[in-house]
Amino acid sequence: GKVSASSILASAPSDKNLDTWRDLGCRTTRCNVEVLQESTLVFLATKPHVLPGVLQEICPAVGPHHVIVSLAAGISLQTLQQFLPTGTKVLRLMPNLPCVVQAGAMVFARGGGAGDGEVALLKDLLSSCGLCEEVPEAYINIHTGLSGSGVAYVYLFAEALAEGAVKMGMPGGLANRIAAQTLLGAAKMMLETGEHPAKLRGDVCTPGGTTIYALHQLEKGALRATVMDAVEAATKRAWDLTKD
């Protein structure tokens, strides 16, 4: 709601992608340079292997008034700046899937040409999509392993929670809804209380109660170590993509 649809101009090579933007009331084009001619804030949301060609195409149209924001995984600020005029205001942003429902987790890093004004603008616009934090660029690949890929880890855990309930006799639809609400409530408590998850976990446990028995089983299955290994594996893969 921060920007009217009519103020947005989207460019893509085919109507397959542009139809969605038209349905939202946005203007569309198949000319990337036209976006630069009519816009100040430009988001580059392409596949990584496509981005260098797009940067070469738009470079002559980029001026000192433009703010360029890249969402391409694995493309460093240094690479972006090499393709664009010296001093261009460049930022690198990494969102995650729940941005679609305005509950995303996003981090971004600024290039040498971007100042506090550009950072404030980006944070203000993206605050409606969820959590948005400025970080050193080195954290972006870690964010990919933690949150970008981490959404899938949570879905796997939610599926396992629900299937456990189904095994014990609960209908699948109800189990899925309760599992989702359980994750939502736990996450909200972490954000709103600011407490360490270990503290909140301890608050749920009572001596000899159901929770400590369940946690014992999770520990025997090495849940924490396995999840840590997953974050590490995804982060390392993100680093490999950056090198490629």
UniProtKB/TrEMBL annotation:
Cellular component aspect of the GO annotation: cytoplasm
Involved pathway(s): Amino-acid biosynthesis; L-proline biosynthesis; L-proline from L-glutamate 5-semialdehyde: step 1/1
Superkingdom as given in the UniProt entry: Eukaryota
Group of enzyme by EC: oxidoreductase
Domain Pyrroline-5-carboxylate reductase catalytic N-terminal, chain residue ranges per copy: 7-74
Positions bound to NADP(+): 45-48
Keyword Cytoplasm: yes
Enzyme Commission (EC) number: 1.5.1.2
Localization in the cell: Cytoplasm
Entry keyword set: Amino-acid biosynthesis, Cytoplasm, NADP, Oxidoreductase, Proline biosynthesis
Family matches, as Pfam families: F420_oxidored, P5CR_dimer
Major site of localization recorded for this protein: cytoplasm
UniProt subunit comment: Homodecamer; composed of 5 homodimers.
Function noted in UniProt: Oxidoreductase that catalyzes the last step in proline biosynthesis, which corresponds to the reduction of pyrroline-5-carboxylate (P5C) to L-proline using NAD(P)H. Proline is synthesized from either glutamate or ornithine; both are converted to P5C, and then to proline via pyrroline-5-carboxylate reductases (PYCRs). PYCR3 is exclusively linked to the biosynthesis of proline from ornithine.
Stated name of the protein: Pyrroline-5-carboxylate reductase
Species annotation: Mesitornis unicolor
